């Protein structure tokens, strides 16, 4: 991360994604969802408490990413920021994810349930061979 006017900025742009996996710290493991990802780091939403402080080394395991190691840079309201260990293996795994698995994610603002009323249901036409009702 670089500092400009005492503001910490990311080195690489992050792309939104929805990758499920888990985070390992010492002997504990917590399910997580990767919210955004870049070659240098990721933001995760934890499904449970992660008892690790900023600066702690963790491992992220996800089906489409494999195993990534990094350091916790921030924690806030069940979310965690991880800075990856810089090595060629991590860069190759992230590059492979973006090449083969990544799909652009857009936020969902609202979802309305589909309600079918009798007026909206199309009627099937009666065949000529059917007998009329008396």
UniProtKB/TrEMBL annotation:
Cross-referenced Pfam families: PilZ (PF07238)
Gene Ontology terms, MF aspect: cyclic-di-GMP binding
Domain of life: Bacteria
Gene3D superfamilies xrefs: predicted glycosyltransferase like domains (2.40.10.220)
Residues annotated as domain PilZ: 10-97
Ranges that cross the membrane: none
Protein name, as recorded: PilZ domain-containing protein
UniProt organism field: Rhizobium leguminosarum
């Amino acid at each position: 991360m670089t500092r400009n006017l005492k503001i910490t900025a990311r080195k690489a742009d992050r792309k939104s994604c929805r990758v499920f996996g888990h985070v390992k710290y010492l002997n504990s493991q917590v399910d997580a969802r990767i919210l955004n990802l870049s070659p240098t780091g990721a933001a995760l939403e934890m499904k449970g408490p992660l008892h690790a402080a900023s600066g702690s080394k963790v491992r992220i395991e996800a089906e489409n990413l494999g195993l990534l190691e990094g350091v916790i840079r921030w924690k806030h309201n069940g979310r965690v920021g991880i800075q990856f260990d810089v090595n060629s293996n991590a860069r190759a795994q992230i590059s492979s994810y973006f090449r083969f698995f990544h799909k652009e994610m857009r936020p969902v603002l609202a979802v309305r349930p589909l309600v079918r009323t009798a007026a909206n249901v199309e009627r099937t036409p009666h065949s000529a061979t059917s007998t009329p009702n008396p």
